[in-house]
Design goal:
This protein has 439 residues and is of the alpha/beta class. It has 2 helices and 27 strands. The N terminus is likely disordered.
């Protein structure tokens, strides 16, 4: 049944979106072929724009959450009562620590910083009088936070002598050059956040900062392979996206049993998805998309039962029958791969899912009727597969559904009339599916 009749829907917060116009071959007026081609091209472009917009929106939200959590951690450290805060004698800064701070000031053009209070008077003492972004415990520097501060130039090697440093946070500056390797072996370091700079070079082959919990280096120009040794059993966040890393995914990161976020998207990594990651039972977020990673989901991953947010591409083979073990998942994106076969019954267990994107695979068979039980689903993207059969009537019960994409499949049916009553549904695209929208 060929569908070419009109329906206009709005893509909220993005652009005014004209959904597929179809007219069931029942004597409705003909549409010129050239006009139809132009319309379909526009729909395809707008569909691609939607995917891009949503990916960027999710990334932006994630980074804002990451920054907010970091600010809360640093505030907690600075509010911890110290002897010099309680009226005791204020210690003079350790000479080695002060020398490292002055090196940082000179190396990154401190006179042009947005804020350099204290730093611009080399005779003052950073643990006795306020220096912007510096926090001490006794005579030792334990935290430096200088963000959006117009720091430009390389980080000095002497930062590696700050043996009591716990937090080093310089995101959203203009830092260049390599990250001093000595930073990755600081014994007290718990947080290293240098995101959104222009840093280059490679990471050391071994990370030996044993207390490190948060390593955040996204949006730089870092190259080479990822470290092969991770002596970081306390690591909770690893965010290395949007660099130029090559080589394989970091298998030994599985030593960090408490790892919660593993984000290595938008690099040039190759090879298979590591079996060892199945030991990351506390992992809640896994983003590997926009690399050259590929292969089937390892069976050990069924033990990653804390996952909430997964975004990957390059997955192949049949959809894992154990996928239902990810019962907590709210976002699942396995797009642009070679997943074949039908959707397994285990997918029915994903009752908390809000976003499910499986586009550009080789899925066949029917959409399981259990989708009608996904009461939280907001985005269902199944375009560019080989799905067939009827569209489950239960879709008409998905009150939270906002975006439904079924384009370029092999259906030969009509959409359930109840979809037309869904108040939150903004886009329903069914181009090249054999579906006629009649609601």
């Amino acid at each position: 049944m060929k569908c070419i009749s009109p329906r206009t829907l709005v893509l909220a917060a993005v652009v005014s979106y004209l959904a597929i116009q179809c007219s069931c071959a029942h004597g409705l007026s003909a549409v010129r072929t050239d006009e139809l081609d132009v319309t379909e091209d526009r729909h395809y472009r707008e569909h691609m724009e939607f995917r891009h917009f949503e990916t960027e929106r999710r990334t932006d939200v994630w980074h804002k959450v990451l920054q907010q959590r970091g600010q809360e951690r640093r505030k907690l450290l600075r509010n911890t009562p110290q002897p010099n805060k309680a009226g005791h004698m204020i210690s003079s800064t350790d000479p080695s620590d002060k020398a490292a701070l002055l090196d940082l000031y000179r190396s990154t053009r401190g006179t042009a910083w947005n804020s350099n209070k204290g730093w611009n008077d080399s005779s003052s003492d950073p643990c006795s009088v306020p220096w912007t972004g510096v926090y001490c415990q006794g005579s030792r520097v334990v935290s430096i936070e200088l963000v959006y501060n117009n720091m430009a130039g390389p980080l000095p090697e002497t930062l590696g002598k700050l043996s009591e440093l716990q937090q080093l946070v310089f995101y959203s500056n203009l830092l260049t050059g390599e990250i001093p390797a000595s930073l990755f072996s600081l014994p007290a370091l718990t947080e290293l956040d240098l995101n959104n700079n222009q840093l280059t070079g490679q990471l050391p082959s071994a990370i030996t900062a044993t207390k490190l919990k948060h390593l955040v280096l996204y949006t730089n120009q870092l190259t080479g392979g990822l470290p092969t040794e991770w002596h970081t059993e306390e690591l909770q966040t690893l965010e290395l996206s949007s660099n130029m890393f090559t080589g394989v995914a970091p298998e030994q990161i599985s030593v960090a049993a408490g790892l919660q976020e593993l984000v290595i998207s938008r690099n040039n990594l190759t090879g298979d998805f590591p079996e060892s990651w199945g030991r990351l039972g506390n992992l809640t977020q896994l983003w590997t998309f926009n690399n050259e990673l590929h292969g089937e989901l390892p069976s050990s991953w069924q033990h990653m039962t804390s996952l909430l947010n997964v975004e990957m591409d390059g997955v192949s083979g049949e959809m894992a029958t154990w996928i239902g073990s990810w019962k907590k998942i709210t976002l699942l994106i396995l797009s642009r791969g070679k997943i074949s076969g039908s959707l397994p019954s285990g997918i029915c267990e994903l009752r908390r899912v809000q976003t499910l994107w499986l586009f550009q695979n080789s899925l066949s068979g029917v959409i399981p009727s259990c989708v009608g039980d996904w009461n939280n689903i907001q985005q269902l993207e199944l375009s560019d597969n080989q799905l067939s059969g009827d569209i489950p009537d239960g879709m008409g019960r998905l009150a939270q559904l906002q975006f439904l994409y079924l384009s370029r499949n092999a259906f030969n049916t009509t959409l359930p009339s109840a979809l037309g009553d869904l108040k939150n549904l903004q886009v329903s695209e069914t181009k090249d599916t054999g579906i006629c929208q009649r609601f």
